[in-house]
Amino acid sequence: MKYKKLFVLVFGLFSSQWLFGQKRGVDGPNIVLIIADDIGWGDIGFFGNKDVKTPNIDALGASGLAFKNMYVTTSSCSPSRCSIISGRYPHNTGAPELHDQLPDDQFMFPERLRNMGYYTALSGKNHMGGAVKKAFNLISPGKGPGGEEDWVSILKARPANKPFFLWFAAHDAHRDWQTNDKGVVYDAEKLRVPPMLYNGMETRKDLASYYHEISRLDHYVGNVVGELKRQGILENTYIIFISDNGSPFPRNKVRLYDSGVKSPFIVKGPGVKVGETEGLLSAIDIAPTILEIVGLKKDERIQGTSFLSLLNGKQHSTRDFIFTEHNWHVFQGYERMVRYKNWVYIRNGFPERRAMAGESSKLFPAGKELWEKHEQGLTKKNQEDIFLMPRPAEELFNVAEDPLEFTNVATVAGNKKMLSYLREAVDRWIMETGDSKPKNPTRDRDDIDGKKLPGEWLKGERPGEANKASRMNRPGPVLKKDIKMKEPV
């Protein structure tokens, strides 16, 4: 009799937990994560661009919380996306370089949502490999030139009795450009040219095509919001907008300047405070935040920190440090960056090399024009960064005074204490997360003309591989208290 009562008690406990889980799943908030491709922080109207037309994204920003200091973990497509889905730094995911596939044993927050009872779907750019199949009920390659044309149909076809998480990943605005009637056609002659680029007609045409694809993505963002309204579920849905890295132009994509790793980031949803915040965020913070939103505990493998309290209007800092990394992306690279307050410190592991990317080669119009004008002696100082060889081993910038990071102040005597402090932060992050500079790094795949180099090309040693960093979970410094060195005044 005693065992029978115990069985009834245990069965009842598990039954109540199962029922609660089912009820919680049915009643949970919906989440739509929209990931733009290669769109820089300053290339959205809401974030200050006066040329590009993005009324729908601007409306999200005006009705949600817009973050002015969200950083992706790397300015490289697939490693950035692997960081978002896992909440881990690239060298900790086991997929730190372009086209690396996320290992099957890595954590993925949509898998937790699916197991909880959420309907999960991915449409558009995957770029993370086959491991993500277990995280989604549906995976679609997307439709149309930007991959967004099935987003509304997925919303319409979703199961009616489940909350949903949708990973909508556009191909806009990624080269090569494709034009259709869903984006604005821009007059190249009327566009303002960023100062790191040569102000010539080929660059202007390149920018016009880039802005067209941004406007096309904006069109589909509006369609998604409209469908959520039509279904009467907008008020119970979080919409998160982010880009995977900076714009595909010289000195932007792949690089660790704000033009490469700072992302437009907006969250709109239930209880989200409307406004703007200067708080520092990392893309690895998205996973733990979404888990907290739906009531799930943070997985021990996640290195990010939830910022749900910021969404709810509490103005305390969730982190003092941001770390980003540059690894192989067509060209060899190993750079590490930390941001603290208004200071950005970059350490270059290969100072003897140019900091190259496909977008800064002669392969695409803006890069080609920049190279041609440089060879003719017509470029300005702020346009010549990609030609430097050797490069500084260390760079230091005050982004409050120098937002485009054109003036390296690492050698200024008055910055000595800050330089030492940020060196310590990077050293500690490297040590605690198991990062390592490859001894046999992946070599360049292409030359500056964008042509494949001769001979067999193979991937080399990955960053962190020597220390088995893919099995390490420590996040490195997050708050000032994590650094033993005294904070500079």
From TrEMBL:
PANTHER family per UniProt: ARYLSULFATASE FAMILY MEMBER (PTHR42693), ENDO-4-O-SULFATASE (PTHR42693:SF53)
Bilayer-spanning residue ranges: none
Biased composition (Basic and acidic residues): 432-465, 479-489
InterPro entries assigned: Alkaline_phosphatase_core_sf, Sulfatase, Sulfatase_N
Source organism of the structure: Pedobacter endophyticus
GO molecular function: arylsulfatase activity
Keywords: Hydrolase
Family that this chain belongs to: Belongs to the sulfatase family.
Domain Sulfatase N-terminal: start-end pairs: 29-130, 151-295
Protein name as annotated: Sulfatase
Chain positions covered by the region annotation Disordered: 432-489
